Amino acid sequence: MKVEQIYTGCIAHAAYYIESNGEAAVFDPLREVQPYINRANKDNAKIKYVFETHFHADFVSGHLDLQKKTGAQIVFGPNANPNYDALIAEDNQEFQIGDYKIKVLHTPGHTMESTTYLLIDENDKEHGIITGDTLFIGDVGRPDLAQKVAAELTQEKLAGHLYDSLRKKIMPLADDLIVYPNHGAGSACGKNMSKETTDTLGNQKKTNYALQEMTKEEFIEAVLDGLTPPPGYFPQNVMLNIKGYESLDDVLTRAGKALSPEEFEAAANETGALLLDTRQAEDFKNGFIPNSINIGLKGSFAPWVGAMIPDIKQPILLIAEPGTEEEALTRLSRVGYDYTVGYLKGGFEAWENSDKEVDSITRISPKTLESDLAKSEFKVIDVRKASEFQAEHIEGALNIPLSEINEHLASFPKDQEFALHCAGGYRSMIAASILKQRGWDNFKEVAGGFNKIKTETELPITQYVCPSTLK
């Protein structure tokens, strides 16, 4: 049985495609559906079903556009209650795709409608499981997201359901089954995912902490331990996936307006839109439109947009490298940001050539940081995640994770010079652009971040020491 994983690294997402005898099925598709249609056309196949493992929080699924364009039937597992036409399957119900069978295994826990799909080949042999966010490689789905949509679903209740689902539905299955999860490392839907995107169930039974022998109480404690707050856009994406959304084609048509510098400036003044610059940090720091925010397209763009822009209905004006505008608009819409007003025709260069006001950010080398820190009044602010900071950091540095910057602006000094850094420079430039927009001008950003600081300076580094090694 051939299962094709279609992996999108920037949001650590895996969709799946299978085909047999001219019939095809797609599992958990992204919002831009043409690649799936093209794949089926290559096989001269008709997409018969679009299977959803649950109502996703980290992206807007493409099931509605696939249904509209191909006539495919949308399938959810038990407990799902969408506001559009879909088949709500029963536990253990089977679907036929050519010579293949798809068996529904209701596995609540990540959400109450979470479902695993058991793949059965043409010889009636069980091949693998498409697990959605129930089981990842090295981890399981976090059980605290559904409570953001339904208050009565506490994370403890959901974790208890997940314990039962794993032990009653997943772990009794054969060890040689292939596990096909919805996400890999980098997704905010779990906390300890492997970089590998498939594995055997048998190996996961040996290595995945959540599948080891423990009581339900121990499992709940282990699964909930160390969870960071989910990105603010997650509940909004869940509601789009439940209630429905506008076709991506219509969104791109409306948002794809090329605006001259004068039109762009007028639109900014009239709409109050957020100015989003998607160029690389190196280009942004040399010159940018005042009050614009930098979130580079060549990075974890969509998740950081979701983390830093709280409202998915926020009007956006786009500044992008010419030729990348459609990609940026598509990636915004993947996570539900459908209200882009237009983009700057010709990019930042057109703005600069029109003699309009520009701003810049001072970026320094790690060696310059080392010299600056010799000044007693100079401060370092590390915007990496708390876990990264706890593992190792510059001695005396203050940790304000980028995802929490809006809640802790008062912690950034205005009467003292300071430097910003992350691991490599992507996140610290986002932070720098936000601080510039909010009126800070007394800081520098460190090129190459902590990775370069460690190798190019002799600054003292504080490293975490495991308590078991202390004497």
From TrEMBL:
Pfam families: Lactamase_B, Rhodanese
Rhodanese domain ranges (all copies): 269-360, 374-462
Entries under InterPro entries matching the protein: Metallo-B-lactamas, Mito_Persulfide_Diox, POD-like_MBL-fold, Rhodanese-like_dom, Rhodanese-like_dom_sf, RibonucZ/Hydroxyglut_hydro
The entry's keywords: Metal-binding
SUPFAM superfamilies per the UniProt record, alphabetical: Metallo-hydrolase/oxidoreductase (SSF56281), Rhodanese/Cell cycle control phosphatase (SSF52821)
PROSITE patterns in the record: RHODANESE_3 (PS50206)
Source taxon at top rank: Bacteria
The name this protein goes by in its record: Rhodanese-like domain-containing protein
